[in-house]
Amino acid sequence: MRFSASSAALWLACSIGLVAADSTIDENGIKSIPLRTHNLASPYLDSAMQSRWWDFGGNTIVRADQYVRLSSDKPSQEGWLFSRVPLTATNWEIEVEFKIHGSGNLHGDGFAMWLTKQRATPGPVFGSVDAFNGLAIFFDTYKNNRPGTVFPYVMSMMGDGHAIYDKANDGKDNEFMGCSARGIRNANIPTKARLTYFQDKELKLELQYRQEGQWELCFETNDPPMLPSVAYLGFSAETGELSDNHDIINVQTKNLYNTNRGDNGRPSSPGMEKGRKAGKDRNHAPKSEGSWGWFLFKIFMFFAVIGGGYVGYTAWRAQQKRSHRF
């Protein structure tokens, strides 16, 4: 196949257009670029009954047209779903559609969302490993021993690789921030969670469970914990004597980049809620706030332009030589 310089330029323009078409910029100048390596949607599996970007195990069931069921409404089940590659973006947003439902009046135990160094390791904490390193969000539907707290309860925990989750007290002493979410189980609308992270600037969790399109702030802080530089995105669930179906329906992950010059992180909003627990003060070494994902994208496009130009020039030179022969 022969390429003219104009053909090479057209191919390059189309490639750039396809990538740009997937990205959006909101009213605050925040550009979002989908991360296909951390997205999940029906039919979930390829023709070989595998997923290119995700692993699953335990009692997990995949129904290609509906859900990835981490645990069924049966006693003593646990299952997990984890990304195969780590999430290395500096700033990101993860939106998850899930469903917690069952037939009994008594139900449990719940499911968890993970951003941790560990991956695909079964354990006693909502179906995954204890003493983890990273961030966990627990959607706890069964109250063990936590007076004064309304369940279901959604809480975050930062693990340092040594801390043990206090299961007997529903993680009371482990909590970073959290909120009650009565109505999140057996909801009549699609239930969703949206976790947004800007390094050193913001960690925010929003929930949709009361009305479609209406997001409830669960917690927010402008002093977020430092997450591991290499963290895997995952989900897990467990049931004990009581049970529920815990389904993951859709996962959308985006790399975020502030296009406003001079500030690569999201500006902190005034009066930001600290949540139930603001956590201890943290001193972080100064870090570059730019998005590595965006930086690598620009490097890729730079070499793509050079490569396209070289292909076009080589084809043009070859055509010129052939024309001089006659």
Automatic annotation (TrEMBL):
Bilayer topology term: Single-pass type I membrane protein
CDD domains: lectin_leg-like
Membrane-crossing segments per the record: 292-316
GO cellular component: COPII-coated ER to Golgi transport vesicle; endoplasmic reticulum membrane; endoplasmic reticulum-Golgi intermediate compartment; Golgi membrane
Protein location: Membrane
Protein's UniProt name: L-type lectin-like domain-containing protein
GO BP annotations listed: endoplasmic reticulum to Golgi vesicle-mediated transport
Record PANTHER family: RE50040P, VESICULAR MANNOSE-BINDING LECTIN
Keywords attached to this entry: Membrane, Signal, Transmembrane, Transmembrane helix
